């Protein structure tokens, strides 16, 4: 029944999704403030149209959240569905094959910023909800909460959750914002990495200098910043911050075996990225490195003369955005303190270093013994024709651990993305086939959940 | 006589200088192409007005050059005056206290891009020439050549010189484009450093990746670029390129003693730059390091997410502008080969590195036994009341060695800048007092030159 519903309603469903995508709700850029409000309003309209009893845009300390609910008389269980309506910046724009905010269907894929992360995925939850309401199939309460600051680290969410504990009361949280191992390897995410993110500024001389008159005599803050960054990892690819690994648990052999059994074609992976070699911590496989081990990445760097031409300058300042992916049990607050102390200690006296903690999030582990996890397995099996693998993933959704801390509720990560979807990158896309299967899987989840 | 001439004519002289400064002739930025032509035309007008017999804007492979001459019947000597009418970019614009292209006089200084480098300094030569012509005091021929590509490495000058050897025939070349040790320490520049400048591009994966999904598994080109840059110098501040120092001559003890005798207040120098410590090659004094020893500076770096916000990206590319200051006898072509081979060798297989040689220039040494050098000493002594010191400087004017190579003529570096003039930086400025003394010193030079 759900298959024919999707077929019959697809043009309308896509048009509704596109109406969300067309709003450039980039939370990182202050000039898009009005778009955040527009996007929240559009979600409210859609949720009411789908059959929510109530939907409203609720203020927070930052961008507002959208709350909606459908309460079923006599129901004793409540599912809280979380998604986010904000998206990442789109630069470099010249690499996009079509306008990131004019969604297009080409080659059976949707192409746009947010096609996957997280408008497309949230919309899968939405479409399944619409189907269940219209056909009177819901046997439990459903609540939606959509936030507008996920891509900037959800600075206002924790306070919001604490203020609305009663409203958000639920038995399980359902989130579609992760990806599967591959289109033919459906999987549920059972672990996420945490994150800590910093802005650093290195100041040498108090103004830009002529590199001829001063070069060799005065510390160049770019040279120094590069040296400091280089010292952050050792020859084995391990992070050198003292005590960084104190709370990192070694992977149990059983889990390493499970990971090793995941079909993974390293040559294909390298070809897709066009790299001759991969790189990371010694002693761990590629999948272990990008999902179960911490990492250190420079997400941005700038200083001196940028772009065309050849200015001979010894600049006053150099900047970088640094981040560590963390694993469960690593506390980002503790890591922040360790990092700040260590990074500062790497600086010679010839420069001044300013470190600003931007945001952090804890990792997460979902026990596969939860009834809701089993319901998700059944939903996936129904839609994809095979039992999903349980996989830890490398991304961070800091709010998942916040849900657990503030609301005391576990989350099922029922994500339908693929690595090829290019989220956070130019030409983000989403497969229509998986979009359809996703809706089917979520409907299957709701049905199975009632029977457990 | 020259003192009263300057006093009486200063408003007109400054207005003429300002008419040059107001044209934003930034050679590094293609959008200023028309300004280059405007600035060349303005120089031509001014030179004719000052009494040149002939002045014209002459084409080259790049921006045109301005040529002018005043031939004195019966004269057997010719002085060729070189200057440049192009200026450096002005970013970061927000640090300027007044518009870089709206020259202002405040606190007895001219404030503007080009106030010193090199519109202000070239204009000193111009004003002295005007005075000598008007008062019929010239006893030798004077030729002017003003180029529009000095700040981008003079790519067209060598060909131009080779094509116009006869026109540019001269006995000595006079250049005001260097600086003095201090306002109360007049000096003539007897040595310059060479330069080699590169653009490098490091490519990791073929598109920007999500740092959560790939961080730890795939080489981040920014991390790698930082590591490569860090390896370019060792713990003693020496450049690690193999054979880099092969042609670097150790400073003779006599010269080190002379340098050590230059009054230099290191505490004041650090205070002016607001740095707690200086930094550079071990075993050499600050003045030695910034004038007689090679250096390695990153002049620009960029990659990933720049500016506001906190994008969690593992970028595809990272870029840097790298430069080495060289000393006399180091051949920038040889250094370029050594650098390219070494830098490439620093790259792990997980990235691709593209190195583009941007430009280079040889160092220069001026013998203090030249008659023209002695004439310059006399001019300085007349204007500043003390004999100028002979000092090697850290900047590069690659064309000085090109003059010697192509025209076979030595250059006297009669520069009037000060480090506090902030050339290539925001708030470039030039002292009116030194501007006046400079004109007087150049008039003194011309007069002394005829008597030698």
Automatic annotation (TrEMBL), chains A, B:
One of its GO terms (biological process) is proteolysis. GO terms for molecular function: metal ion binding; peptidase activity. Keywords: Hydrolase, Metal-binding, Protease. It comes from the Bacteria. Residues 190-349 form the Peptidase M20 dimerisation domain. It holds the Pfam family M20_dimer. The keyword Transferase does not apply. CDD domains: M20_dipept_like. Coiled coil: none annotated. InterPro entries: Cyt/Met_Dipeptidase, Peptidase_M20, Peptidase_M20_dimer. The keyword Hydrolase applies. NCBIfam families: PRK07907.1, PRK08201.1, PRK09104.1. This is Peptidase dimerization domain protein.
């Amino acid at each position: 029944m759900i298959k024919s519903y999707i077929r019959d309603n697809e043009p309308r469903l896509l048009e509704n999704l596109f109406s969300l995508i067309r709003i450039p709700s980039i939370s990182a850029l202050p000039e898009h403030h009005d778009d955040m409000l527009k996007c929240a309003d559009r979600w409210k309209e859609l949720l009411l149209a789908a059959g929510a009893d109530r939907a409203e845009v609720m203020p927070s300390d930052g961008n507002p959240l959208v709350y909606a609910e459908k309460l079923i008389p006599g129901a004793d269980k409540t599912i809280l569905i979380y998604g986010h309506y904000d998206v990442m910046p789109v630069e470099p724009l010249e690499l996009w094959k079509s306008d990131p905010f004019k969604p297009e269907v080409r080659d059976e894929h949707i192409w746009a910023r947010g096609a996957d992360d997280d408008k497309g995925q949230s919309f899968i939850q939405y479409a399944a909800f619409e189907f269940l309401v219209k056909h009177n199939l819901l046997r439990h309460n459903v609540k939606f909460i959509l936030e507008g600051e996920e891509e900037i680290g959800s600075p206002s969410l924790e306070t919001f959750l604490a203020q609305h504990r009663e409203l958000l009361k639920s038995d399980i949280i359902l989130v579609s914002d992760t990806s599967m191992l591959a289109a033919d390897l459906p999987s549920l995410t059972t672990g996420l990495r945490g994150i800590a993110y910093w802005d650093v500024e290195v100041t040498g001389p108090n103004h830009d200098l002529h590199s001829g008159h001063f070069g060799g005599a005065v510390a160049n803050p770019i040279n120094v910043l590069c040296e400091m960054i280089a010292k952050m990892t050792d020859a084995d690819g391990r992070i050198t911050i003292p005590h960084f690994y104190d709370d990192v648990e070694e992977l149990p052999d059983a889990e390493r075996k499970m990971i090793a059994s995941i079909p993974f074609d390293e040559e294909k992976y390298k070809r897709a990225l066009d790299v001759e070699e991969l790189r990371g911590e010694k002693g761990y496989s590629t999948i272990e490195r990008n999902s179960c081990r911490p990492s250190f990445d420079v997400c941005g760097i700038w200083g001196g003369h940028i772009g065309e031409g050849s200015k001979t300058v010894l600049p006053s300042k150099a900047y970088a955005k640094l981040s560590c992916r963390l694993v469960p049990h690593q506390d980002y607050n503790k890591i922040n303190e360790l990092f700040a102390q260590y990074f500062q200690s790497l600086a010679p006296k010839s420069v001044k270093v300013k470190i600003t903690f931007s945001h952090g999030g804890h990792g997460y582990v979902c026990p596969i013994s939860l009834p809701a996890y089993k319901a998700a397995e059944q939903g996936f099996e129904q839609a994809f024709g095979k039992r999903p693998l349980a996989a830890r993933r490398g991304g961070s959704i800091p709010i998942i651990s916040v849900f657990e801390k503030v609301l005391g509720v576990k989350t099922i990560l029922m994500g339908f993305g693929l690595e090829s979807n290019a989220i956070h990158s130019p030409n983000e896309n989403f497969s229509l086939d998986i979009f359809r299967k996703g809706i089917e899987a979520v409907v299957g989840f709701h049905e199975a959940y009632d029977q457990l």
